[in-house]
Amino acid sequence: MDLLKKIDERLGELFKEENHAKFARITLVFFFLTLLLPIILTKIPISIFDFSETGQIGDTIGGITAPFIGFIAGVLTFMAFHEQHRANKVSEEDLKKERFENKFYNFLSLLNNLEINTKVPKVGNYKQAFHYMFYEYKSIAVLIYRKLGMPDLNSKTVYVDDDGNQSTLTMREFILNQAFGIFLNGVSTSSTDRLGEYLTGKENYNDYFLWLQIYFGKKEHPSVPYLDDYNTIDIKLFDGHRLRLISFFRIICKILELIYDDGGKKTELYLSTLLSLLSEHQMALLKLIYVYDNKEHDRFILTHKKEINEFFTKEFNIENPTVCINKYIYTKTMDCSNKEFINYKKGNSVGSFD
Questions:
Q1: Which of 56, 121, 234, 241 is the most buried (most CB within 10 A)?
Q2: Cα–Cα–Cα angle for 265, 105, 247, nearest 5°?
Q3: pLDDT one-digit tens code per residue, 47-77
Q4: How far apart are CA 296 and CA 289, in angstroms?
């Protein structure tokens, strides 16, 4: 099969459109030689045979010219079949592209409908909801950071995950990881023990943030870090966004899988099209989920793990402009992998509630 494929590729090069004129000229030369053969063979003494004395000159010339005519006819027939084969391949590629684009734009339509129907009570829907969710995550991270006494973010700490696995993280990574659990799942008086980890002493995350809900719900208290633009007295803070974000993340992963499967040579174009429809806050949230959700919600994507990982985590390089999320997240304070993501100082309208 490999040999036939190579032969087909070579013939494709040989008979490609720019060579058609060359073959037409060669065919015309053979045609005129065929017409001139009777004169050449009967009037010009160039052969060791004397065809002028032959009574069956037509049969003789026919026998001589038949191979040439057969060869020309064979070449023309082959060119016709090869051109048909090429046209069928082009048609097949066009059909494949059309089917892919139908799926792609249907997915984008589903994504748009999901975004429109994403709503945070007392905040709004669509892009506004994602804007709020992103800054609520940052506020949770800063509140944990302040509660821990504003430690050196580059210092190391040992982290034990839900499966009992230990890892050494910087305080920045530890805080962002802990903040994500609260942000996604929310806190409540009936919260499960997934938020039962101790923050300091005997106080756990759930109890601390339940207290903050009450604290920030009073007018005399300062505004929530990063949420100064919202009237947080009317908003139920730290209520969790799992129902809003996981479907959003999963449909993005399915679109990525489709692009990497069938996007072909225009993969980067389709990736750019997808990202151009997302706000910077949506892209920042997508990266957060991918980095801190421990791959829980993208593991159903069975193919293109390497490409999807690079899409979410690869740093953008202007000299090698691969399309990835970091190409579109311009502000360092919006990128969870950047050291400036948590860059909150004492006295930034947080108040003395520690």
A1: 241
A2: 110
A3: 555 555 555 556 655 665 677 667 667 766 7
A4: 9
